[in-house]
Amino acid sequence: MDERVREHAEVLVDWSARVEAGDDVVVSVAEDAHDLGVAVAEALGERGANVTTLYGSDELSRAYLKGAEARADGDRSGDNPDDDPDDDSAADPDDPGGVPDFDDDPAVDRAIFEAADAYLRIGGGRNTTASADVASETRQAYAKARKGVREARMDTDWVSTVHPTRSLAQQAGMAYEEYQEFVYDAVLRDWEALAAEMARMKEVLDAGEEVRIVTERDGAPDTDVAMSIAGRTAVNSAASVAYDSHNLPSGEVFTAPYDAEGEAFFDVPMTIDATRVRDVRLVFEGGEVVDFSAEAGEDALASVLDTDAGARRLGELGIGMNRGIDRFTDSILFDEKMGDTVHLAVGRAYDACLPAGESGNDSAVHVDMISDVGERSRLEVDGEVVQRDGAFRWEEGFEG
Amino acid sequence: MDERVREHAEVLVDWSARVEAGDDVVVSVAEDAHDLGVAVAEALGERGANVTTLYGSDELSRAYLKGAEARADGDRSGDNPDDDPDDDSAADPDDPGGVPDFDDDPAVDRAIFEAADAYLRIGGGRNTTASADVASETRQAYAKARKGVREARMDTDWVSTVHPTRSLAQQAGMAYEEYQEFVYDAVLRDWEALAAEMARMKEVLDAGEEVRIVTERDGAPDTDVAMSIAGRTAVNSAASVAYDSHNLPSGEVFTAPYDAEGEAFFDVPMTIDATRVRDVRLVFEGGEVVDFSAEAGEDALASVLDTDAGARRLGELGIGMNRGIDRFTDSILFDEKMGDTVHLAVGRAYDACLPAGESGNDSAVHVDMISDVGERSRLEVDGEVVQRDGAFRWEEGFEG
C-alpha cells in the first residue's frame, strides 16, 4: 500500500476525529475508497476503537431511489401487486406526483448515529454523476425524510474526506497520479502549524467590526464589498473536530458576516445543481443581493437566490489558507480552502459563528462563491490591510 | 446488468427474507458483490423498505484485527504511546499472550441488529484467504466479544447468500462463467415446488424413530450407521425465513439425531480451519465417536472432536435435495444442499429440531461431513427404504 494512504488514515483518525480507545466509530467507504478504508480500519484497531463499516455506494443509492420511483409509479397506476391499501408507508394512490414517500424515521440509520461517537465519511466513487437519472423531486423527498438521521450524524464527531479515485481525477480534469499528488499535498499538511497560523487570522476577525475586500484585476469586474462582522466569532477550520472543523482537507477561517454593501465578482467556476456557473457578479445593498449576473449558468444562480429571503443575504465569509491546494478542481472540499482565495456564501450561516442563542441568516441553501485574491487585491479589517495580493501581514513579502 | 443478478435479488428479497413495506433491512455487501448489492437495493426500494448498507470487506476486517494485534503487542512491550493505565479496554499489560481485548458490547453494531427487521448478507470477496495472517487466538477473541452482536443478528430475519466472484470460482476450481452458471442453477430454483417436495421428507422424519444409512461403494469403506430421531422435528430448509431457513441456496431437510451406533464414511472433501480434510471415517458407540480416521487432515479432525464432550456426538442429520447443485465446490453453503447427498454434523444441534424447552447436543463446534449417496446406498426410516441410490420413494425410478 502507498505509504501516503496510511498517512492519510492517521491524519483522519488522530488529528481530525481524535479517536480514542473505546470509541464507537462508523466509517463509510465509497466504491473505490477501499484502500483508505483498509488503512483507517487498521488505525482504528491500533487505537482500540470499535469500528462499523458502511458501504457508501452512489450506485446503490441510485438503485434504491430508482426502485422507490418505480414503486411510486406503480402505486399511481394501481397495477403494483404489492399495493396494499392499509400500508401507509406506500405512496398515496391519490397523489398524482409519483414522488416516492420515504419513511422519515428509519430505525437502523437513526440507531447507528445515535450510538456512534465518530463518523468518518470516505468519499471516492466510480462516477460522480452516478445518480444523474434520479428525479430531483425524489432526491429532495429522500433528503427531507433523512433530516433526523442527518441531525444525529451531525451530532457525532464527523469528518468528511476523499480517497483519490479516477472518477474524481476526471472531474478535476487531471491525470490519476497527478490527482493523487494533489490530494495528498492538500491533506498531508503540518496541521499543528497551519492551525497556529489560522489562529492569527481568527484573532483579527474576532476583534474586527468591518471587513472590506477589494480587487482590481485585468479583464475582470472590480470587487469592492464591505460587510459587518461585529459580534461574530470566526472558526479556525483546522480539519479537526477539536476546532469544530469537519473536512479533511480544511484550512480556512470563516465567520458569519452581515449588512453587506457593494459589488463582488467571483472568478472561480462552480457547479450548482449540475449546471456550470462562471463569473458571478453580485451587488449588495443593505445586506441584500439587489442585482446579479453570471457569464454562464445565470438561471441556476437565480434559482438559488430565489429560494427564500435568506438566500439573498450572506451566510459566510471564508478565507482560504491551505497552500497545499494550488488549483481549482470543481470540488468545494478543496476549492474553498485554497490559499490566496476568499469566498462568500449566500444563505445559511453556521451557528458556531453566532453569539450563543442568537440565530444568524437562515436559509435552505448555502452556496459558496470563490474569488482568487492572489494578485492586485486586498482584504481590510477595520481599515487595516490584513492580506494583500495573497500575502498575510505576518508573512514575508507582505506590503501593507 | 445480467438479468440473473436481478432474479437472484428478487428471490433473496421476496422468497427468502419476505421483505415488506416499512421493514428496516440491513444489507452487507462484500468487496466484489457490488452488482448484487445494486440489484437488492433496487428491489428494496420497490418494496418500500428502508435499507442500510454495510461493507462486508474481509480485507477491512483483517486490517482491523491486525491493528488490534499491533496494539496488544505494543501494550505488552510497554512502548505504545497510547498506553493508558486507566484504559480498561486496552490489553492487560500483565497478560503475556498479546491477544487483543475487544469491547464485548460494541454499541453501534448492537444497535444496528436490535433495530433491524431483516439482515441480508451478500458474500463474494476478492480473496477467500484474506485473513490468513490473523492469529487464530485473535479471531477467537473477536468472535467471543461479538457474541451479543451475533445473537442480535440471529434474532432478525437473516439470510446469507453469495454473489459469484472470481475468488469463489477459484476456490471451487472453476472458470468464472462456469461458476456463475453453477451459482444461478443453485439459487434460481422453483422454490415453491422444492419446498413441497421437501415437506414430504420432513413428514417422514417427523413421524420416524430411527434412521439408518447404508452405503456399499467400490473402493470406499462401507457406511452402516443408525441413529434415533424420536421426538425430534425436522426443518424443511427451503431458503426462506418462513421455513426457518437462512441460506440461499438451501434445499435440505435436517433434524437432530442422537444415540448413533455404527460406522460412517464421508467421501466429500472439506476444509477445517484452513486444513484440507478427506475421507473421514467415524465409529459411533452409544452415541459417541469412539474411533476415527481421515486420509488427510486427521489432526484437524482430532482437534474438532476434542473441543468438548458434545463435539463427539451428532448435532445434525441433513438430506441434500437441491438438484441444481451438481458438484462439490468446497463451500458448505452449496455442498450440504446438493442432491444425492446426506451429511452428519458433530457438535451443536439446532434448537428448531428440539422439543420446546429441551436442549439438544451442546458444543462450541458444528462441523458438517458429507457423503455422496447417488449410488449403491440406501436411507431407511424405521426399516423402510426412503431413498435408494439417490432416488426418493416418491420419485420415478425409485426401486424400494
From TrEMBL, chains A, B:
Gene Ontology annotations of biological process type: proteolysis
Feature: compositional bias, Basic and acidic residues: 69-79
Any Pfam family hit: Peptidase_M29
Stored Gene3D superfamilies: Thermophilic metalloprotease (M29) (3.40.1830.10)
Transmembrane segments: none
Keywords, sorted A to Z: Aminopeptidase, Hydrolase, Metal-binding, Metalloprotease, Protease
GO molecular function terms noted in the UniProt entry: aminopeptidase activity; metal ion binding; metallopeptidase activity
Protein family membership: Belongs to the peptidase M29 family.
Cofactors (names): Mg(2+); Co(2+); Zn(2+)
Descriptive protein name: Aminopeptidase
Region described as Disordered: spans on this chain: 69-106
Ranges of biased composition (kind: Acidic residues): 80-106
